[in-house]
Amino acid sequence: MKINLINPNTSLSMTGLIAASARAVAAPGTEIRAVSPAGGAPSIECHFEEAIAALGVVEEVRNGEAQGCNAHIIACFGDPGLDAAREVARGPVIGIAEAAMHAAMMLGTGFSVITTLSRTIVIAEHLARRYGAGHHCRRIRAVELAVLDLEQPHCHAFERILEEGRAALSADRSNALVLGCAGMSDLAARLSDALGVPVIDGVTVAVGFAETFVRCGLSTAMHGDYARPPAKALQGWAEAFSVRD
Amino acid sequence: MKINLINPNTSLSMTGLIAASARAVAAPGTEIRAVSPAGGAPSIECHFEEAIAALGVVEEVRNGEAQGCNAHIIACFGDPGLDAAREVARGPVIGIAEAAMHAAMMLGTGFSVITTLSRTIVIAEHLARRYGAGHHCRRIRAVELAVLDLEQPHCHAFERILEEGRAALSADRSNALVLGCAGMSDLAARLSDALGVPVIDGVTVAVGFAETFVRCGLSTAMHGDYARPPAKALQGWAEAFSVRD
Amino acid sequence: MKINLINPNTSLSMTGLIAASARAVAAPGTEIRAVSPAGGAPSIECHFEEAIAALGVVEEVRNGEAQGCNAHIIACFGDPGLDAAREVARGPVIGIAEAAMHAAMMLGTGFSVITTLSRTIVIAEHLARRYGAGHHCRRIRAVELAVLDLEQPHCHAFERILEEGRAALSADRSNALVLGCAGMSDLAARLSDALGVPVIDGVTVAVGFAETFVRCGLSTAMHGDYARPPAKALQGWAEAFSVRD
Amino acid sequence: MKINLINPNTSLSMTGLIAASARAVAAPGTEIRAVSPAGGAPSIECHFEEAIAALGVVEEVRNGEAQGCNAHIIACFGDPGLDAAREVARGPVIGIAEAAMHAAMMLGTGFSVITTLSRTIVIAEHLARRYGAGHHCRRIRAVELAVLDLEQPHCHAFERILEEGRAALSADRSNALVLGCAGMSDLAARLSDALGVPVIDGVTVAVGFAETFVRCGLSTAMHGDYARPPAKALQGWAEAFSVRD
Amino acid sequence: MKINLINPNTSLSMTGLIAASARAVAAPGTEIRAVSPAGGAPSIECHFEEAIAALGVVEEVRNGEAQGCNAHIIACFGDPGLDAAREVARGPVIGIAEAAMHAAMMLGTGFSVITTLSRTIVIAEHLARRYGAGHHCRRIRAVELAVLDLEQPHCHAFERILEEGRAALSADRSNALVLGCAGMSDLAARLSDALGVPVIDGVTVAVGFAETFVRCGLSTAMHGDYARPPAKALQGWAEAFSVRD
Amino acid sequence: MKINLINPNTSLSMTGLIAASARAVAAPGTEIRAVSPAGGAPSIECHFEEAIAALGVVEEVRNGEAQGCNAHIIACFGDPGLDAAREVARGPVIGIAEAAMHAAMMLGTGFSVITTLSRTIVIAEHLARRYGAGHHCRRIRAVELAVLDLEQPHCHAFERILEEGRAALSADRSNALVLGCAGMSDLAARLSDALGVPVIDGVTVAVGFAETFVRCGLSTAMHGDYARPPAKALQGWAEAFSVRD
């Protein structure tokens, strides 16, 4: 089985980080194709960058399908381009926010999300509602670190997430935490140990869900709401994204 | 006052049609800048095409601001790029689905939407929920005409919408109708007359709402959830969409 | 175009204040008929006073229609008598709470309401739910000033609203504010300037929405849920409110 | 114990009918004061008539309190004036729609309402949402009989409600029915027998709930959201409704 | 009339306490059968103990029916076994959480629940949602006393509930309180006096509701969602709970 | 890895059927312990039988933990005993309704459930709401076959489910189906092929989700809402279910 792990931003160090997380939990025989799109932003922290990322995701879903991938993961917590990707893919497509929230609903009675900058809270809020987690998501908290600062040792990402996590357990009464950025993927296990509750990284969970769907023979329906986009002549810069069936 | 009326698809005949609708209701002194983006799809009927359109909208919001526009209208019923556009605009940004649904909530107790192809129903459904119209929107109906067929006389768009509208009044108990495509803009008045209930075209209503916000001095807040996108070096094809402040 | 601006309370100084606000934003050619009903309470701060006000509103809608008004505004934040008014009016009827909340949903991702006395919070809460703003309305805050005290310089209405507004921006993460009383209408612009987010006064926004609906030829449907009240012989004091068609 | 059973319309035959229903289920020692207000409409079938009825209810709550009533029932399915009545009453106030819906939620998994004219459906719909019965109320059905026609033998009210009830059991999968008009009160037992599910008349259930609250020493809180209306000088026709404490 | 008051735990002192509460409010002629099941836990404070209690409740509903009871009350705030009990009972079955929440919705605009240990908060939360009290229930507060400690004088249950109640009135803006444990039944009246708002004990309210349903001839429908369990050969320990019709 | 697959009913042929389904999708190295509890009902089709099953599930979770199982699956579509099982288990616990609904939310825009008897619809309805699938679950359909009849060739289970599935695709506009009974597990693949949309069997999906959680090191938090049940002396028949830590 081959899973297409798409980092929608262009920072290759993050692609490497999530590839390592994914490979650490993948079942024997699962191959991980980890990529960044050719075009995009170095990190995704607002709606505008999500709009850019959506097209990068579509591009890489197509590339992944051409290379025989059986399933696709969108490894940015805003799940940019999820609906569009489902229309162009043959295999299932999973967003990491989606995967993490569904996992959290199966593991606890209520969860808190810990995200990077507070301006991204509203994005997680809308996703929680869309994915049916309106009641389960008790609060979304920001550590006020930019995505690319998570890797900077002097930013103390682990300590700040830990502190926010402690607040979530007591003030929000949550018994599960969701990490609100793919770039936090490597911290999940240590946080889980330190806090004594499941700390969910969407990247690893999405790998397991993707394997599940493939093994169960389940994919997105190719008609109805997610039918293939009709072939049309796209104009200008958009031509490069034309449907290629 | 100058309003930037963006047709997110590249069909100039539709741009002309909605420009005429907009100018017919604009207050004296309001200038309408009606445009299509340089890149995009000839019509927008799925999530993939919406993702494409979102970037075209961002582009034209920027062009409109450079030309002194005071407010922006996204004239496609899926409101593609609405959040991204608000981050890059100084003036208010209104989607026509948004405008039409809010108008419908102020005019009736429950409304039905009449859209083009049934594959777009789910898009309107998600928007209705997002805009708080979950309870007010009683049903979304499709006439099974493609967007560009609305203008073809032999497709009898008026008759088919009228028929669906009649069904909405009786079966859905709706007392307001929302037209689910900018390309139906020219039919609203005749349908209203024939059905005896308000038939709402988002284009014209959005013009009035835009004028209202400008006259009242109201715009999207430029900090918090809709703060300006940070300046970052976008890669590859995305470079053309870089933040230019 | 002639708009019927109804102040449902009997305080003529407030009628004057909102008339000035309305006229300041009305389009050229729009005439504002600003009135208080013959019977009612000097200010409206509880459910009982709203019940009284509802009949005053109905009375003035009828008077306004007799004088050729094209649309009606109920300028009290509880929107008293809104449904009844729609049954008796030919033109559209807009409540200022309704207008302000719909505007706030089109301008920001989440808003806070700032009302007068905390006993009115529950009224705004019910309206927010009814108008579909359940998720958008992040909190309703009271400055603990009675309606008629807003005009008293020693009450420092502006400063108290400003302070509450600041709290809303940080604690509620709101990026739009809604003023919860028609009597705050004259403070909106200064508050907007001071806070850097849209501060929405329902009176002015409702004027623009009313103009929009009239120009677009939209009115409340006169059958279905808002059909005209049947002619019946009302008894006792109610006789004065009989249907007069 | 003395219960104030208020028929908000002015049809004395209906007052007699519901008084009989109430007395048939009241506990020994419970006295029923059954009244119609001095002013009002002969039947209540739209929002305008509800606005009229609200003041009649307030008036009769005060009269009932003056006569020593311990609790109040608003015996019209729209529960007109409920919030206002709670502000002016010392004892608990119960609307029959409220009582019937809460009873239905305790007796079945889902209920249907059977109302008179379809124009009243929207009123029941809003009440269901307000009372938390959004999910439990599976459908609201109308028999298209005016309130005052229920008593006309040639209108076959019983048969028509029975037929609609049968449809509710099969098509809506309901296992409880709520009668949507006080004037159907005398039919509840026969319908229950014929259909084999609880058919709930709000009048009788409200009597039991009122007795319950009085015996348990429970009443509406007299501060907070339902604090007494402040004493103010009402103007014009409203003077007659002034607060009298 | 005979009411089956089931204490789902095995602590007979609590059975005595709630029997006294019930008898104090029962109408003349109402007999209270107060029992604990033969098998069960001494107190119910988690989901596991609720699962145990559910079968004890079913057992006692059957015993009560055999002894001619007309209605059944489940006197534990988690309402364990409510759906199962309705399937096996002929008379109506009422949970005390259900009764208290419905009463609170008829008495105030918003209520707070005061429960024992914070681990039971989630149970009350789920019930509030199930019973339609999602919006009315403003908060659930715990005094951190175990159920059986409520009776220990040195635990100062009254004082701690009073303190939490005061916080609810100010911080939650509630105007009704619901006691989250049958073992608090004897404190309701004193708390009500001290706080000036209705403090609702589900046991007493449920007695009144049960009497109401019996007098109105209302019971759970015996077909549809609550039809009798089919007769089947239960295995092992479950055999003792077999259907006995 | 060892997964505890609990069939909560006592029909061993069904235990065999689901064991086969589970083993067919399990990753290499995953061992499936498939069991029925010692006590219980031969099939589970009502709330009473669910209450019985809940204790059987608890019993088998404990047995499974004693035998080194790393995760637990409750293979009955009502997910009986889910909360209680989470309190007694060390590993994650997944219900098949839960797993199937979360999978459906990740694969399509809206799903229909196809269940056995219509009396079980309400159970699925409540679960859908609890799991956040309120909007995604478009309809629950019953084929009116008892659980144990699914295996009877003359009952034509496949054909009847297929027919209902076709209706779901067209009338409900669903693009995913959820099988509402573990006993339908063997039909999923053929139905998927015939219908062209994902047909989700909770048993197989739950196996993949369980593997995912174990590999990612995620389990239910053992404090907070799902803390271990306190050790207490259970009485009578319940003694056999005592906490054994």
**Mass-distribution shape of chain A:** globular
Output the radius of gyration of chain A.
Answer: 17 Å
Residue share in helices of chain A?
40-55%
Secondary-structure element string of chain A: EHEHEHEHEHEHEHEH
**SS-derived structural category of chain A:** alpha/beta
Number of domains of chain A: 2
Q: Per DSSP, what share of the residues of chain A sits in E-state strands of 2 or more residues?
A: 5-15%
Kindly report the CATH topology of the largest domain in chain A: Rossmann fold
Determine and state the CATH class of the largest domain in chain A.
Alpha Beta
The average pLDDT score of chain A comes to: 96
Descriptive account of the structure:
- The structure is a homohexamer of 245-residue chains.
- Chain A has 245 residues and is of the alpha/beta class.
- Chain A is built from 8 helices and 8 strands; from the N terminus they run βαβαβαβαβαβαβαβα.
- The first copy, chain A, has 2 domains: 2-95 and 204-241, Rossmann fold; 97-202, Rossmann fold, CATH 3.40.50.
- Chain A has helices at 12-25, 47-66, 82-88, 96-107, 121-130, 157-171, 188-195, 202-215; strands at residues 2-6, 31-35, 71-74, 93-95, 111-115, 137-142, 176-179, 199-200.
- A 4-stranded parallel β-sheet of chain A has the order 2-1-3-4, with helices on both faces. Chain A has a 4-stranded parallel β-sheet with strand order 6-5-7-8, sandwiched between helices.
- In chain A, helix 1 packs across helix 8 and helix 4 (96-107) packs across helix 8 (202-215).
- Chain A is globular, with a radius of gyration of 17 Å.
- The two termini of chain A are 23 Å apart.
- Chains in contact: A-B, A-C, A-E, A-F, B-C, B-D, B-F, C-D, C-E, D-E, D-F, E-F.
- At the A-F interface, helix 4, helix 7 and helix 8 of A face helix 4, helix 7 and helix 8 of F.
